[in-house]
Amino acid sequence: MRWWWREISGLVLPVDCGGCGRPRTALCEECAGALYGAGARRVRPDPEPGGLPVVHAAAGYEDAVRAVLLGHKERGALGLAGALGRALAGAVRASAPYAGGSGPLLLVPVPSARSAVRARGHDPARRIALSASAELRRTGVPARVLAVLRQRRAVADQSGLSARQRLVNLSGALAVAAGGARLLEGGRVVLVDDLMTTGASLAEAARAVGEAVGEAREFNGPGVLGAAVVAAPVSAFPSLRK
């Protein structure tokens, strides 16, 4: 019932801007511009984990963008999924050439732990991916979400872990569900998530998908995988580094 109440309350209760708190608007024009107005750019964490595909992000993870993502992810502001999906759709468009092929775009979200989904009452990355695929289809781009990745073992909480520790924590943790590889055939796979920090999750997702489709060793070359996220640390944007 928790998800149902969130959906209804988002429609009937007064809302403030998810980015800056300005009253009577779910997302003000200024915060929307910060989220998806600048256009998606390539991001590269430092250090960059092996196996990380080319990643594009819509915005830097700071200020209003950070507030919007946390509001949707942790505070149940589900009405923000539309704006976040629009941002992710822009990053997917930028990543599409790196996914290779000529088939439909297949958005594969990085899965959250089941315990995290239960605690939050929803799966943020999947919800945003669904919104992004709808946005892409509205603009004539064939796209659909394939949530084929699963966690096959428990992982520790990533917060507080270094880049190296995150890689070790996630190594071998993901797998494509039975029959999932067949669904991926003929499409252009773009891994999607709400946020990239060190890149460890996307690298592990790329390994799992590549292994499932028989491309287990080479992920960085064009024609294999692309990846798209709503936001990444400012330090991962060469043009935004302070």
Automatic annotation (TrEMBL):
CDD domains: PRTases_typeI (cd06223). Gene3D superfamilies: 3.40.50.2020. InterPro entries: ComF/GntX_DNA_util-trans (IPR051910), PRTase-like (IPR029057), PRTase_dom (IPR000836). It comes from the Bacteria. Transmembrane segments: none annotated. SUPFAM superfamilies: PRTase-like. Belongs to the ComF/GntX family. This is ComF family protein.
